[in-house]
Amino acid sequence: MNNLTNNDFELITQLLDGELSSEQAAEVTKMIGSNPEMQAEMDRLSEISNAIRKDDEEFVPPKKAKDNVFLALGIPLAVSAPSLTSMSSEIANLISIGAAFTASLLTFTMFYSLNDVDSNNVATNSNVPIVSSYEKANNNNIIIEEEPMDLEVEADLANTASSTPAISPSNTNIDTRSNNIMNTSSNNTNNSIDLASNNSDIATKQIDNVSINTNIDENITSIPNTKRELVSAWESNIITSRKTGLQTNNSIFLEGKSITTNGLTYTRDYLTIIRTKATSNNLNSGQFDVSFLTNYFTTDVRGIISAGLSWYDQNSNPDLRNPVFVGGGIEYTPTFTNLLANGYFDTFINGQLFLGSNPSYKMEAGLSTTLGGMTNFPIVIGYTRNYVRDYQFIRQEMNDGLFIGTEISF
Amino acid sequence: MGSKLDKYSDPELFELVQSRGKLADNAFSELYDRHSPRVFAYCRRFLGNKEEAQDVLQETFIRLYKSSNSDREMTNVPAFILTIARNLCVNSQKKKKPLVSYEDYMFVRENNNDDNELLDLIKMAMETLPEDYKEVFILREYEGLSYQDIAEITDTSLTNVKVRIYRAKQKIKDILEPYLVDLNKHEKDE
Fold first, then answer.
1. What is the pLDDT, as a whole number, of residue A104?
2. Helical spans, DSSP H, in A54-196
3. Which one, A11, A27, B124, B143, has the greatest CB density within 10 A?
4. B67 to A215: CB separation less than 8 angstroms, yes or no
5. Nearest CB to B97: which of A59, A127, A322?
6. The CATH number of the domain where B134 resides is what?
7. Taking the mean position of all CA atoms in its chain, how far away is CA A25?
8. What sign results for the dihedral spanned by CA atoms A276, A282, A285, A289?
9. Which site among A15, A53, A79 would you substitute to test the B interface, given the most B Cβ atoms closer than 10 Å to its Cβ?
10. Looking at the predicted complex, does its ipTM rise above 0.90?
11. Distance CA A213, CA A301 (A)
12. How many folded domains does chain B comprise?
């Protein structure tokens, strides 16, 4: 049906693209004029090209992109247009808190409306970027997540100025910490797995174009893979993650303190969550066996029922060059003098402000009851769910379900 | 800014940036304003994902700025910028997340009316192209670049570019063939 050769097609394409010399063009035009098949072919290709030319779809770059560029280069934002990044931290805080209040309300709603989902039936999507947490791990693990140090405070961002923010692949603090944990965990030796091993990153790869590479490669900052070590211990999950952002936090248990226990040093620099899931191993006639934690508690019982929602960047490779995503979270926590009594001891709100990079969010919603008070290690009995907004929907990634253990977070 | 930088050519602006003088930042801002829409559009079409496109856009201009550290004489700023963007897009593509964002998905759906039906079909057909065909097709059809420019940007031979463009167009045309035939029929009937 179609007797045209590849050469004919090629000539038509090049004619339409203006890639033929005038002599060639005249010749091909003549050929087309005398060949209906070639004419039809050209009409179709023209139609496609014309449609594309009429494409008036506009892709307006987000305003914040410019600020991000300027911020990363240390160019005063005044040169760029004002946006969220140029707000004072107080305003940003207010926004965060405001958003967090709403989030808190949502949390309750979500918690009550969704808690009938069977965790076993919730598919875990392997496409979700691996983030900070225990939800990617098996039970009975300690997860130490290391993240670059750079994304600390806003002032640091402004000070990155002319030098490329070096995201150091190694961090002595973290390394030391890892070693501590490795050394102090008794059952860990054979279980070290690097969850991020397949996270090889674009930034370290060479750009194909040699001419560009020779000039800009030196400026490519490598983004280190997030290194995680998985260590088996206890009947619990311990999640330690270096903070990657700015937070305002009324830390209730760790205010300005550094706690050392069982070889683990907890500082304000780390988010540490220790949780133990209820499993057949620690269920005992309907009661949770928390004997493994008893060393850490006193008898002072103060009940805290808290619910919160954290909404934050879960990108595992924070990149200072594209730093601006502000997330927020809140935990509303009325504190009771004793459990189930309506005597409020204190009420506080734990607001958080995060600074991240790519807008991939994680929401964690839950309800927990904390027993503790005197110590810095409360028992937490709770129920949490994680909702991850990836690239399609906000959806539940994993139901943590009921857990018991202790939780420290900052 | 009142500095009338919009009257400067791209190479002049780049020189100002290189000078690190008092106008350097404004010159860079002008370059950004001038070229970012095009770069963003290119990235968006190439990557199909808004977030990734923004990341690449930002990184492109960061690298552009840093490249001004050298004594490079810049003659074709847009091509240089596009080359950076293209390389970043290719790299990004290599580790691309398989999912399309909800927003991006809805974006295509919502715009799917009769007026630009052909355009939507072209975009869908484009997505079926191998990456190296897709990129030359975008550079040619959307950016209007010459084969020679495309060869330079993609660091491939001119012959290779010719072949890729021709094959890309053929493939898109083949996919759209039934639709185009229908369209022509309707037009004739009318």
1. 33
2. 63-73, 89-114, 154-159, 172-184
3. A11
4. yes
5. A127
6. 1.10.10.10
7. 55
8. negative
9. A79
10. no
11. 63
12. 2
